[in-house]
């Protein structure tokens, strides 16, 4: 997978969470999300307990609350959808502040907000403590189909390349006095998009030929073989195991 590729969600650090092998963190986050989704929506206290568990992980990873909260803004569309549910859902109605709201809609909105927020928070913590290159290694270690791992690797690697090409084309247009001000300029933008596609396709062909000339046979070599000890697995799975206890109590109480 070559050289590392940092991303904006990653926060450099030397915490115990950063030091865990990536496949253990991926497995832990997946298990945690499954447990959260399996929790009955009526057990509202359980979701508070999950939030406390994530806060403990963030503290161990030395991820500031502000950093985490800013990244949670990505779920704003889901929040908007949840806000609409009490108004559009059918069934028994209840008056809240003079508004007629659906009881099922209120429960549905709470369900989406609670589980969605916890899932996004867990994903943000994973991204904040694991470099993108390590995530790909973790997926490979977890036996994800190699072709999917390669596609993800190439997408990450050349996303910035294409973005850079778009930036250079924009600068070239602006240096010639072009400014997109209305529908009449859409033709120029469409031609630019077509040129970008052709350049990207040609670059992809050149990269493939270069890889084949260096012995590529359809399988990416594993440069860093990362193994996890029993202690590291225990440390990583502490979060989903604690969440599982909360989930079982939520069903029992």
Automatic annotation (TrEMBL):
Signal peptide: none annotated. CDD domains: EcfT. It comes from the Bacteria. InterPro entries: ABC/ECF_trnsptr_transmembrane, ECF_CbiQ, ECF_transporter_component. The chain crosses the membrane at residues 43-60, 72-89, 109-130, 233-252. It is found in: Cell membrane. It is a multi-pass membrane protein. Keywords: Cell membrane, Membrane, Transmembrane, Transmembrane helix. This is Cobalt ECF transporter T component CbiQ. The gene is cbiQ.
